[in-house]
Amino acid sequence: MDDIKPSEYARSRNFLDGAVTQLSPYISRGVISTAQVKQHLLQKGFTPKTCERLFQQLAWREYFQRVWQHVPDLHLRNVKNTPTHLQFQGIPESVLDAKTGIHAIDMGIKQLYETGTMHNHMRMYVAMMVCNVAKCDWREPATWMYSHLLDADVASNFLSWQWVCGAFSSKLYFANQENINKYSHSNQAGTFLDIPYEDFGTMNVPKELNQKRSFVSPSTLEAAEFPEVMSLWKWRDLPRASNKQLLLYTPYHLDPVWRNDENAERVLLLDTQVLGILPMGKKVLEFVLDLAKNIKGISVVLGDMNEFMEVIQAQGLTCRTKEHPLVTSSTILYDERDWLYPEYDGYSPSFFHFWKKCENAQKKELQKLHK
Ligand SMILES: Cc1cc2nc3c(=O)[nH]c(=O)nc-3n(C[C@H](O)[C@H](O)[C@H](O)COP(=O)(O)OP(=O)(O)OC[C@H]3O[C@@H](n4cnc5c(N)ncnc54)[C@H](O)[C@@H]3O)c2cc1C
């Protein structure tokens, strides 16, 4: 957070080598919150005006989270519109193999495979190429991208794909070669994207994107592959310490300072039901396990959430976690997440609508400070 340069960020964030924060893996995994980032910058003396662009991006994340709370199955269905141009299932082979012929995009996909990261603009390019140029339905490719991202987050990922292809927005997003060249500092020409914007509407699927393949999920996680991961049944039979409280962590809640002065058993549950629907590649899992090492005394358990809750109840433990749409058991106690705008927890029909409310809240906050 100390390295953030808000003015530089505002000026360059759309460039693939721009001064972005690279904080999303830590925000998505619940290690730090968007509210902490905002607070940190204000405490360092940056003005809200200087940080406006960044605060707006943080608000995008919060907006998506709020939509998710109201539309829990958004990874499965079109939230606002049904796009009629999405005629195909699967993913273009050239995208999966990073061989589309658009050099910047191929580099972006290779980087995703190697590092688990991808710049926001590159994610938009890939999604628009798959959905709006190759006309593939968003569900499978969004799951493919999700499985490789260190920052994988259901709301940000699936709603962004839906935003690009018009399922969560009123128009399709397109970028041509000129735009890609500008933001990647490249000068490629003569590609299938080297066309004026008005031609996108009538363009046929280019031959480079014609061949489709189904996405093969990373193989189901075996506890034996990772020495620190134990099966639910092994964990169940461990001798229990005297404390009756269990603090539950998930791959989306790895906050190392949460209730850290409390005497409690701590478990990171890798829920096999969630992993079956929302797969996690090996690199991503390794990242999650590394983050879990920040939590003292934590056990990592692989198992089904319902069966886990049965064990908890049978052993007379109370279970507490942080609120998150992927954890829905009614027998768990929930702490609030750390929100930027806790007062706006309803469903906003658009980001613009949400942001207007946030701006008003910010103005009021500032007025209070100046009084
Ligand atoms: C197709 C697609 C898929 C995406 N999938 C994910 C995902 O699985 N997980 C995820 O965290 N983000 C996702 N995003 C949003 C965005 O690309 C990343 O949050 C951003 O690239 C993270 O890099 P950064 O931390 O350097 O961002 P910065 O630009 O430095 O922004 C700071 C923070 O603001 C938030 N933020 C910034 N841009 C967005 C955005 N467009 N939407 C939501 N929040 C934003 C993030 O929490 C980010 O860490 C996706 C975007 C697209 C277009």
Commentary on this structure:
- The chain is an alpha/beta fold and 371 residues long.
- It has 3 domains: 6-70 and 345-370, no CATH class; 91-213, Orthogonal Bundle (DNA Cyclobutane Dipyrimidine Photolyase, subunit A, domain 3), CATH 1.10.579.10; 223-335, Rossmann fold.
- 41% of the residues lie in helices and 9% in strands.
- It is built from 15 helices and 8 strands.
- It has helices at residues 6-12, 24-28, 34-43, 52-70, 93-96, 103-115, 120-133, 139-148, 154-164, 177-184, 232-236, 272-277, 282-292, 305-314, 351-370, and strands at 91-92, 212-213, 229-231, 245-249, 265-271, 299-303, 318-322, 333-335.
- The strands form 2 sheets. Strands 3-6-5-4-7-8 form a 6-stranded parallel sheet. A two-stranded antiparallel ribbon has the order 1-2.
- Helix 4 crosses helix 9 (154-164) and helix 4 crosses helix 15 (351-370).
- The longest helix has 20 residues, at 351-370.
- 34% of the residues are buried.
- The model has no long low-confidence stretch (mean pLDDT 95).
- Flavin-adenine dinucleotide (FAD) binds next to helix 2, helix 4, helix 7 and helix 9.
